[in-house]
């Protein structure tokens, strides 16, 4: 989201949604929504997608306000951890129920991130796929093929 904002993309209302209050402080998004304050206490979902889902459900009213009046919602998230994996399908379902064209753009973990994270990502992607009009999945491993050697991971 920060890269899209920094690129000067116009005509878009950016929202950062996270369970981690510190991540929101570091976001350039003009609109921020901390989800799951009761369940996570602002400390993130700890890699637990169930906690991410509970957090999104807990904050449903705030999320509904965020998409109010939208014609199109893009949901960007990293899959495999807690907040993105758990909350993205909830936000997508809510958006589609409101008749909003909903597109998911997510990343799939690097193969070296381990089986647990990959399994969580796979399950989250299937849950998201069932609730979006279009889904784009970007495998992080593919980034290693298309960037020059020595490029910082954040820049890839």
Automatic annotation (TrEMBL):
Asked if the keyword Nucleotide-binding belongs to this entry, the reply reads yes
**Residue ranges of domain Tubulin/FtsZ GTPase in the record:** 1-155
| Alphabetic keyword roster | GTP-binding, Nucleotide-binding
Annotated Gene3D superfamilies: Tubulin/FtsZ, GTPase domain
A GO biological process this protein is involved in?
cell division
Q: Name one Pfam family in it.
A: Tubulin
Q: Name one GO molecular function term.
A: GTP binding
GO cellular component: a single term:
chloroplast
Q: Which CDD domains does this chain map to?
A: FtsZ_type1 (cd02201)
Show the PANTHER family listed in the entry: CELL DIVISION PROTEIN FTSZ-RELATED, PLASTID DIVISION PROTEIN FTSZ
Stated name of the protein? Tubulin/FtsZ GTPase domain-containing protein
């Amino acid at each position: 989201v920060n890269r899209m904002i920094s690129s000067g993309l116009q005509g878009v209302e950016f929202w950062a949604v996270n369970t981690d209050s510190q991540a929101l402080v570091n976001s350039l998004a003009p609109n921020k929504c901390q989800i799951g304050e009761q369940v996570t206490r602002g400390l993130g979902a700890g890699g637990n997608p169930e906690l991410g889902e509970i957090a999104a459900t807990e904050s449903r009213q705030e999320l509904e306000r965020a998409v109010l009046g939208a014609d199109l919602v893009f949901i960007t998230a990293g899959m495999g951890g807690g907040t993105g994996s758990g909350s993205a399908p909830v936000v997508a379902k809510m958006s589609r129920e409101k008749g909003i064209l909903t597109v998911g753009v997510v990343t799939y973990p690097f193969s070296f991130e381990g089986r647990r994270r990959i399994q969580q990502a796979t399950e989250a992607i299937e849950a998201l796929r069932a609730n979006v009009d279009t889904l784009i999945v970007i495998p992080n491993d593919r980034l290693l093929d298309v960037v020059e050697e020595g490029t910082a991971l954040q820049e890839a």
